[in-house]
Amino acid sequence: MTATTALPVAIERPSRSTQARAEAFAAYVLSAPAIVCLFGILLLPTLATFVLSFTDWQFGAPTLRWIGLDNYAHLANDRVFWKSLSNTVLYVLVVVPASVLLGLGAALLIEAGTSGRAFYRAAFFLPVTATLIAMATVWEIMLHPSVGLINVLIEALGFSKQNWLKDPDLALFALAGIGVWQALGLNMVLLLAGLKSIPRDLYEAAAIDGADGPWTRFLTVTLPMLGPALSFVLIISAIRSFQVFDTVAVLTEGGPNKATEVLLYTMYQEGFGFFRAGYGAAITVVFLLFVLVLTLVKARLAEKRVHYS
Amino acid sequence: MSGVSIRGVTKAFGQTRVLHGVSLDVGPREFLTLLGPSGCGKSTLLRIIAGLEQADEGSIALGGQRVDSLLPRQRDVAMVFQSYALYPYMTVAENIGLPLLMRRTRPWQRLPLIRRLHPQSRAASGSIESDVRRAAAALQIESYLDRKPAQLSGGQRQRVALARAMVRDPRVFLMDEPLSNLDAKLRVAARAEIADLHRRAGVAFIYVTHDQAEAMTMSDRVALMMGGEILQIAPPGQIYEDPADLRVAEFIGSPKINTLAGVVRTDGGIDVPGGVLSGTPGLSQGDAVSVAFRPEHLQVEPDNGASGVLRGIVRHLENLGSDFYLYIEPSGGGERLIARTTPDIGQSVALGAPLVLRPAPGRVLLFDRVGRRIRSRP
Amino acid sequence: MTARGGFAFSIFRHVVLAAGAVVMIAPFIWLLSLSVKPADEIFTTDLRLLPLRWDAGRNYAEAFAKVPLHRYLLNGAIVTATIFTLQVLVALPAAYALAKLRFGLAQPLFALVLLGLLIPGHVPAIPHYVMLSSAGLLNSYPALILPSVISVFGIFWIRQFFKTIPDDLIHAARLDGLSEFSIVWRIMLPAAAPALTAFGILSVVFHWNDYFWPLLVVTSPDMAMPALGTVYLRNTEAGTDYGPLMAGTAIITAPLVIAFLLAQRRFIEGMTLTGLKG
């Protein structure tokens, strides 16, 4: 018995199938709202920000003029802008290492034992979910120069009280402290996940090979295996802390003497405080470029993790 | 003609050709199995019949009617997937009833409030409920109707998938390796259930599998596919005893059929490594052929020194209790030959014993150099 | 690393972690403590956790009297719930199309989604403000809600999740007679529940705590969101009446804290998505 029938075979090429057409049609209808919103709310306004940065428009002005790169030239000569940028970078350089190291320490200690894990995890993570503005207000009272909790404790320990938020040398670091307090829990949780994913038998193999002490275990197994998670957490921390705004806006308003002026706050001041929309847009573009570089690094790191996991 | 009619179906994914002009007819009440190794195109063909994939060339007709331009849901086919594809967030009853719900109600009647209030949709849900019960009863899963798939075992989920297919009363059932996720014992029981289902439903079943035991035990006919082509369609007995191609002979039958490479002699016999076998009329001298015979057709005797016969040495023994297999290294070299015998005889054979091998004369199959079967002329 | 090192290590671990936990929780405890103290006990270097004289009643009543605290919470609830609902309505169908359907725009659209992930939320702020201003929508629910309706992260996240759903499930649904639209809402939505929970928590927490955008578009107290509301509260308490300030702050902070304590695992799961979101 043969595989084909006795009748002549009519070979035809059917038109693009009904199923394929139905799928494509449905896809367009289903993604239409997203496409509209994507362009209308995200892409076009972002483009508008770019365009605006090349104009001299102010809020409420009836006309605007194209001024090319003038805003950027002005920025380059703007002392406040440079102070703002350097403050932001300094802030990041303080918050990121501190919150990642402390988060790592907490994660290691939590994972090293079995009791109290849920409690400690919740305690460390609580600041992450709380409304920062609200808690910043509490911190402000705690940092009060004479009766604040922090200063009273410091004095009890033998140091002198400080005017944390009004001292130009200390204010940024006080804000950074609050930033670390808020970010630590998130880093800890991400690193906990990284720690949990290290296979147990690596430690056992290391033990057989003689690497048994806690410090050795950390250096030979934990740290290398945690490498990707650590880099990831570092870059995420950097991206988030670069966008610091809330504490500055509420506690110091950029002062004293621009000691805590940060990039987003400057953008807010110029754009909405002084209504210089064009100039504010230029600052936004600079902000975007910095965050973009960090995000691209993050994306590359994320890709590598996916390939290795 | 009713049933399923497939003509000249070709399909390629990118540069890879998966089906090469496949044609096939399935009778309206027939159980046909598409059997073949993975990658041979059988699942693709099934999905083309269902309308989930589109053939590049060729046509499909169901019940005499061309269905190429119809959406899957318009083709009146039901399909059971290898993974069962049960909706995880619905109960078993809702899973089984969904196709009926789609068919018997209009979309607006399914909206939450209306569903409860509108007389027509309430009537529909009543009839759906009774049909679901009936399908569940037939497969003995009535007690699971309120559970979710995650709470069921593999065998139970498989029956839910069957019930969901059954409840629609389709004119064709398509099954894509529905038993491969079950363990061996369940599989045997499930085979009987599916065969039962086929008898009761009385419609065409197209069944895809790579397991030849399933194909042999359940089908009216088996279509063996390899490399995107159908090599042979025949009832199970015929495909076993009368394979049309060497690849068919090697795929069907466990343990695998014995093969020897041979050359035809001037006297019509066949030279094989280590001996001579008798040939059939019609062969030309010098032809290269493959000689094949099944383990149960290989008779063995202790080596008595006769000349010109095939001989070999026993290298391995397998006692399965009901059968005994001897693994023999032929004197002329090459792959081991397997002989099936009874335990009584097998146990008297020692490892390393020299044997004379005699394939049963009428049971030797000959294939030409490209694998086509050479049938003896009467 | 499982429990090891014996008793001494265990003590060490608990001491260090407990100290850390105290530092982490201190502001919350102190918040509650200050909120029930009278002014003279607040302005003292005498540290006490519990007040000598309870003034909770006055503090909390004052807080409610000075600013519409209940409005802040109500606005927070309405705005975050609406934002999340709209985000799902927009993102889920698109994520399904990108994950499971074959159509010409699929690649470019996904590329645009990835592009969108690179843009921080503050960048389109000025044009958003201008658009809302010229539509006369400032200081309203639409102003708070509309800019956040598109969540490219939501589309990305849900699409990744949908990719893990077996195609056969959708094939079975098509054979059963479901249209693509039905498949989205009957099959994919329930299946996406875990991803939506995490995303929901991320979205709600982020928008509840957002200060930047409400600061820009809200000009009257009864439209304020929780974070902005705290600042209004501060401004009316300019000076030294910290008791009611802390009371009001406690009220505003309470909902998220309580929700977190009740559903810790889910919160943590959801918030770790900020890692992916950037």
What would the average pLDDT of chain B be, to the nearest integer? Answer: 89
Classified in CATH, the superfamily of the largest domain in chain C is MetI-like
Number of strands of chain B: 21
Number of domains of chain B: 2
Can you tell me the CATH class of the largest domain in chain C? Mainly Alpha
Which blocks of ≥5 consecutive residues of chain B have pLDDT under 50? none
Please describe the biggest sheet of chain C, giving its number of strands, its sense, and whether it closes into a barrel. none
- Secondary structure category of chain C: mainly alpha
Secondary-structure map with pairings?
The complex is a heterotrimer of chains A (309), B (378) and C (278).
Chain A lengths: L17 H35 L17 H7 L2 H34 L4 H13 L2 H11 L6 H8 L14 H26 L3 H9 L5 H29 L3 H7 L10 H11 L3 H32 L1
Helix pairs in contact in A: 1-12, 3-7, 3-9, 4-7, 5-10, 7-9, 9-12, 11-12
Chain B lengths: L3 E10 L2 E11 L4 E5 L6 H9 L6 E6 L2 E2 L10 E4 L11 H13 L7 H6 L1 H20 L15 H13 L5 E5 L7 H18 L2 E6 L2 H7 L2 E6 L2 E6 L1 H6 L4 H6 L6 E7 L5 E3 L2 E3 L10 E6 L4 E5 L7 E10 L4 E7 L6 E5 L1 H4 L7 E6 L5 E3 L5 E2 L4
Parallel strand pairs in B: 3-8, 3-9, 6-7, 7-8
Antiparallel strand pairs in B: 1-2, 1-4, 4-5, 9-10, 11-12, 11-14, 12-13, 14-20, 15-19, 16-17, 16-19, 17-18, 20-21
Chain C lengths: L5 H30 L3 H4 L13 H11 L2 H32 L5 H12 L7 H10 L6 H5 L6 H12 L3 H9 L4 H12 L1 H17 L2 H6 L8 H11 L5 H21 L1 H8 L1 H5 L1
